[in-house]
Amino acid sequence: MTSWFSQTFSRGPIAGLLIESGIICLNVSLISLIYFRHFVQIAKHTDGKIIRMIEHKDKDEDTAYFPVFSFRDGQGKEQVIHSSSGSFPPAYEVGDTVPVLYNPNDPSNAKIDSFFSIWGIPFITGIIGLVVLPAGLLILYWPNLARRFKRQNEASVS
User: Fold this and answer.
1) Pick from 72, 75, 77: which is nearest to 49 by CA?
2) Which of 14, 104, 123, 137 is 20 to 30 Å from 47 at the Cα level?
3) Where do the domains of the chain lie?
4) Dihedral sign, CA of 15, 21, 25, 30?
């Protein structure tokens, strides 16, 4: 007896797409984890101030707020950074003091020192990869697993 799923979809291409996507996500997670770990190790700590919030609406009219912050680097020069991490509702208000990490060799490479700003990319891509890759493998090997389980069930009943 064939299931609705096997009649409607071909397992191979779907499993292949999920497996490839999972591997790509895990690679992105690993590379970004290495990059951000290095960044955190060399970064200098300072305090900054939120000077503006940029509102961004996507095509579905959902809104995210991206902070713009300023800080003084090791040479005393003021740096203004547009954060690439946005949120809804806004995580900060204009005038808030925030902890900042910045590369002393390139102060324009700075981030608000928060979990999501630093570790968001490796965390999210890692979680996606850890869900999608096993799902693809399960879809690909499901007939073999089902047959093995059925044989074990029949053997235990006899």
Assistant:
1) 72
2) 123
3) 12-142
4) positive
Taking the CA atoms of 135, 140, 144 and 147 in sequence, report the sign of the dihedral they define. positive
Amino acid at 93: E
- Per DSSP, helices labelled H in 4-158 are 4-8, 11-42, 115-157
| Beta carbons within 8 Å of 48's beta carbon, 6+ residues apart | 69, 70, 71, 81, 97, 98, 99, 100, 110, 112
pTM of the predicted model as reported, rounded to 2 decimal places = 0.75
How confident is the model over 14-60, as pLDDT tens digits? 899 999 999 999 999 999 999 999 999 999 999 999 999 999 988 88
C-alpha 111: how far from its chain's center?
16
Taking the C-alpha atoms of residue 52 and residue 65, their distance in angstroms, rounded to an integer, is 10
Distance set, CA 158 to CA 144, 147, 150, 152 (Å):
21, 17, 12, 10
